[in-house]
Amino acid sequence: MKEKITENLQEGYDKRAEQEVNEQIFAALLEKTEFEVPDALVENELNSIINEAEQSFAAQNMNLDDAGLNTDQMRENYRDVAVKQVRRQLILSKIIAQEELALSDDETESGLKEMADAYQQPVDSLKEYFRTDENRLEFFKHALLEKRAIKLIMEHGDIKEVPPNKDKKSASEKETDEPVDQSIDG
After folding, report:
1. Helix, strand, or coil (residue 164)
2. Which residues have a Cβ under 8 Å from the Cβ of 87 and sit 6 or more positions away?
3. By C-alpha distance, which of 101, 93, 84, 89 is closest to 28?
């Protein structure tokens, strides 16, 4: 049992480290590639953020008002986050198109299995969930392609490892345009 706990902890640490590297890569990439994003895409992203917040509160039998929030406040507070997310999505979509990335049926199946394992659900019930709405499956496949595009960036970019600075916030916690601990060239 102790080995299983240790293994689960290591998996969690590894996943968090990978997420942190991804965040730092995108922070540097977004800093180097300035471009305007369509307002309609930003509005869609803001709507998604607000919808997720409302669903999260609803799961706790609460609403935005109970938390002292309203949609106007959220739109204002999360606008920069939405712009960064849209820019990130546009960059990844461009890489996917330029590199002509595609998924085989086996890769999709493997991604479904991985997700089922993560949620401790049978693969068949997950497949049924995606069968009920083709857009969900396409969104899932696109997320898998985005992961592959990120790997491509990591493999072909010039990523320099630097020792962590304990006083700095992680890239995912930063709200300002502070320099990140890794730089990307290429």
Report:
1. coil
2. 30, 33, 35, 37
3. 84
Q: Which two tokens stand for residue 52?
A: 């997720």
Closest CA to 148 of 110, 180, 186: 110
End-to-end Cα distance, the chain: 45
CA distance 136 to 143: 10
CB atoms within 10 A of CB 155: 8
Give the whole-angstrom CA distance, residue 130 versus residue 123: 11
Backbone φ, ψ for residue 113 (5° rounding): -65, -45
Q: What is the pLDDT of residue 185?
A: 43
CA-atom Rg of the chain in angstroms: 19
Mind listing the pLDDT tens digit of every residue in the chain (186 residues)? 888 888 878 888 888 888 888 888 888 888 888 899 999 999 999 999 999 999 999 999 999 899 889 999 999 999 999 999 999 999 999 999 999 999 999 999 999 999 999 889 999 999 999 999 889 999 999 999 999 998 888 888 766 666 665 554 444 444 434 333 333 444
Q: Residue 152 contacts by C-beta under 8 Å, 6 or more apart in sequence? A: 95, 99, 101
CATH numbers and ranges of domains, the chain = 2-173 (1.10.3120.10)
